[in-house]
Amino acid sequence: MDKYKVTGMSCAACQAHVEKAVSGVPGVTSCNVSLLTNSMAVEGNASSEDIIKAVENAGYGAEPMGGAVKKSSSASLAEQEEALRDTETPKMVRRLISSVIVLLILMYFSMGHMMWGFSVPMIFHNHVCLGILEMLLSLIVLFINRNFFIKGFGAVLHKSTNMDTLVAMSSAASFGYSLAALFIMAYAMGNGDTQTVDTMAMDHLWFESAAMIPTLITIGKTLESYSKGRTTDALKSLMKLAPKTAVIERNGIETEVAIDEVVQGDIFVVRPGENIPVDGVIIEGLTAVNESSLTGESIPVDKAEGDQVSAATVNQSGFIRARATRVGEDTTLSQIIRMVSDAASTKAPIARIADKVSSVFVPAVIVIAAAACIGWLLAGQTFTFAFTRAISVLVISCPCALGLATPVAIMVGNGVGAKNGILFKTAASLEACGKTAIAVLDKTGTITKGEPEVTDVIVSPGVSEEELLSAAYSLESRSEHPLAKAVTAYGESSGMVPYPVTDFQALPGNGLTGKAGEHILFAGSGEFISGKVPVPSEMAEKSNELASQGKTPLFFSKGGRFLGIIAVADQMKEESPSAIKQLRGMGIKVVMLTGDNERTANAVGKAAGVDLIIAGVRPDGKEAVVRKLQESGKVAMVGDGINDAPALTRADTGIAIGAGTDVAVDAADVVLVKSRLDDVPAAIRLSRAVIKNIHENLFWAFFYNLICIPLAIGLYQKLFGLNFELKPVVGAIAMSFSSVTVCLNALRLNLLNVRDSSRDKKLSDAAELPDDFFNNSADADKHTEVNEMTKTLTIEGMMCPHCEAAVKKALEALDGVNEAAVSHEKGTAVVTLSADIADETLKKAVEDKDYKVLAIA
Predict the structure, then answer these.
(1) Strand-strand pairing, 670-672 and 817-823
(2) % residues pLDDT > 70 (the chain)
(3) Mean pLDDT: which of 588-592, 620-624, 701-705 is highest?
(4) How many Cβ atoms are within 10 Å of 252's Cβ, its own excluded?
(5) Does residue 513 carry a pLDDT above 50?
(6) For residue 250, which of 261, 235, 237, 236 has the smallest C-alpha distance?
(7) How many CB atoms lie within 10 A of CB 183?
(8) Are 374 and 156 in contact (CB under 8 A)?
(9) Which helix (H) or strand (E) element contains residue 821?
(10) Residue 158: which residues within 8 A CB-CB, separation 6 or more?
């Protein structure tokens, strides 16, 4: 995507004209113009010269912003910051002050003297002399606001029209009419016709209106410019976080350098209270880092050697040395800024209707104004009345509100999301997210933590907990198994000290053994341990109960005596039940998708509170499940962005959770920096709020014109007998504040608490999920194909569902493997192949995971 800065645009009609001009350039596949940021994003292979020429031929200016070129962080951020810097408001303020000063002088002479008898020099008691003074003062105001005329009539010369055209035409018409009246007055005075002079002076000199129209519009444009500047505050605040310097070690000496001099591999140091300059890995030191600038989470995160740190986060407590891993535009901060900026450069589908209206709006208003003037003349009204109606129509019509309705809400919404660690890649994804009817959640790492933890410690009668933990810790600390690591971590956190274990072995049949002094230790499944020592019946019942909860019970014995059970499970995230409850409270159906067996899946799904559980789904089957669910409504797929890439791509909205520093997840439409499931309802809540805000803006933009144009024509006066005549000056005031209203309404999104579920509303057309999902689905379960073949591997060392998952993942990662049905209880893996794969390849994939393949059949 190439980005350009566009100059000379003033309303939605300008935006539509630039888009049309650039879209017609050969090689351009997509063009999105933002009136909000005065920028243009172009995709395709057309040259910059051709694109800029097309913009200039349309009557506007353009220059590349360097969006497609990788630059150093400081250069790129400086360029983006400059593009967002509000240079327009100061100019508008100066223009406004000058206009108001001259206009007040003009009003003193025209209305103060004529209507309220304010004192003026005797020469201006002569109506012609006073008219000449009013003309000169109004000319000064028109010159100060000459941009309206340059852009407005310039657009006409390029065969287009815009808001400036309406302002220029109405102001010029008022001035021209008054100038003609002034000539008539001068002629009448020369002939001694004082009655004509007095009549023309009172009713036909509109110099103050000619000057007031651009002045009032400038007031509105100044407020609009300020409001537009505020909509990019979130993005600008992100840019300000970027450190300008870094302290790096070179030849053993600490040196402060500019941030763009830091290269990958440099060692940098950060002291307490300092910002971390670039992304890196800690090689020395302990600290707590405030990552709120990236994640929105205010609680500092503990960091130690080997942990990653990100640019613009704050080192709060300790001194650290780190190695730079990502610099320049590759840092997490730069990626977030680029993503938010790119999203603002795209268009939401909802904006297309406003674009279509904007493209014909100004020509239609000019036709309506002319028709109003002719219509009133035919109805027998005076030329002055008919002309006033035409001027009022031109002045009050506002295409700006139409053009700003969507982009201001998108920009503010993206900023709010970025502050909360929620990143929308495009405006379309921001809109689509709020329309989600079905949320599909991957179990491991999304609903659960993705790492086994000890959940229960149950001792046998006559055995102390310390004795059980000590034996378990001592034996399991020698193993590399995922469940062993969970027991080891629990032992360490409990302050256990392992005693020496000799003759350690991993035994066939799901078990471990070793010697502690004269005593033999055993650990493993219930079936394995019951073959070694007697297991009390109540402990066996407890084991079944734990297994029904989706936990893996590990049995331990020492010296021929049963010690007890330690249960291990992939624990559910603390916020998962609440997040799922929030989704259901929004009227969204929640589906849990997992490759686990049905018993484990049901235990987790029931505890989480999901609507539908789909278990035993292989990785390549997730995409088919999503496709089937899309028959019932809009689907959002939530996964890690890597293993779930096909499903994320297939879904109407792909949400990558727990991206951390890797925010540029290609397959996802929405990226959640934190690994918190409650960010999913927060993203949907934000999207819904933005869509609602856009609807409000569009309603106001259309409603304003629908009500005000007939009012300006005078239809209400004719149809309903209302004694109200809309003056052009009043129309200018109304037009000025219409676009300001849209901007201010969008800024209300900054007040949104994306975590607050108290105002959530259910979808009016909630999706219905079939209970017999797989029975009704032709696509969800394709396990058998014509050319498939199977091989059965006999595997030693698998002890639990986590072992099954590790082996399954390793085998299904091989090209040609359609499915691997793994059972730790049987010690087998039945592999379904679409092509012949050498036994050695299958064996290596399993043994690389530290399991032993005994046979392949």
Answers:
(1) unpaired
(2) 87
(3) 588-592
(4) 5
(5) yes
(6) 261
(7) 13
(8) no
(9) strand 817-823
(10) 57, 58, 59
**In contact, 234 and 412? CB cutoff 8 Å:** yes
Whether the CB-CB separation of 390 and 47 falls below 8 Å is answered with no
Q: Which residues of 710-726 are buried (b: 16+ CB within 10 A; e: fewer)?
A: bbbbbeebeeeeeeeeb
3-class DSSP string for 310-328 = CCCCEECCCCEEEEEEECH
Query: In the chain, helix, strand, coil percent, each to 5?
Result: 50, 20, 30
Residue 297 is predicted with a pLDDT of 67
Side chain identity, residue 769: L
Cβ–Cβ < 8 Å for 421, 672: yes
Query: 757 near 585, Cβ under 8 Å?
Result: yes
Backbone angles phi, psi at 679, to 5 degrees: -75, -20
The CA-atom distances, in angstroms, between 529 and each of 491, 526, 606, 819, 828 are 21, 5, 30, 32, 20
Q: Which of 164, 355, 442, 640 is catalytic?
A: 442
CA distances 233 to 32, 408, 412, 742, Å, are: 22, 12, 8, 17
Q: Lay out the sheet containing 438-442: strands in order across.
A: 422-424, 670-672, 653-657, 635-639, 438-442, 589-593, 612-614
Does 442 participate in catalysis according to the annotation?
yes
With contact defined as beta carbons under 8 Å apart, do 698 and 354 qualify? yes
- What phi and psi, each to the nearest 5 degrees, are found at residue 613? -115, 125
pLDDT of residue 688 exceeding 90 = yes
H or E element that contains 678: none
Both structure tokens of 450 = 């993705």
Q: How many CB atoms lie within 10 A of CB 850?
A: 13
The phi and psi torsions of 813 (rounded to 5 degrees) equal -75, -15
Distance in angstroms (rounded) separating the CA atoms of residues 669 and 656? 8
Q: Which residue has the tokens 């200016």?
A: 61
What tokens were used for 361? 């709006």
pLDDT of 420 over the 50 cut: yes
By the 10 Å C-beta count (0-12 exposed, 13-18 middle, 19+ buried), 292 is classed as middle
What residues are paired with 321 via a beta bridge? 269, 284
pLDDT of residue 344: 63
pLDDT band at 368 (very low <50, low <70, confident <90, very high): very high
* Contact assessment for residue 490 and residue 451, using Cβ atoms and an 8 Å cutoff: no
For residue 654, how many other CB atoms are within 10 A of its CB?
28
Distance CA 543, CA 565 (A): 8
User: Which tops the pLDDT comparison, 179 or 445?
Assistant: 179
Beta carbons of 734 and 219 less than 8 angstroms apart: no
Q: How far is CA 725 from CA 373, 378, 475, 594, in A?
A: 14, 19, 93, 69
Non-local CB neighbours of 838 within 8 Å, separated by 6+ positions: none
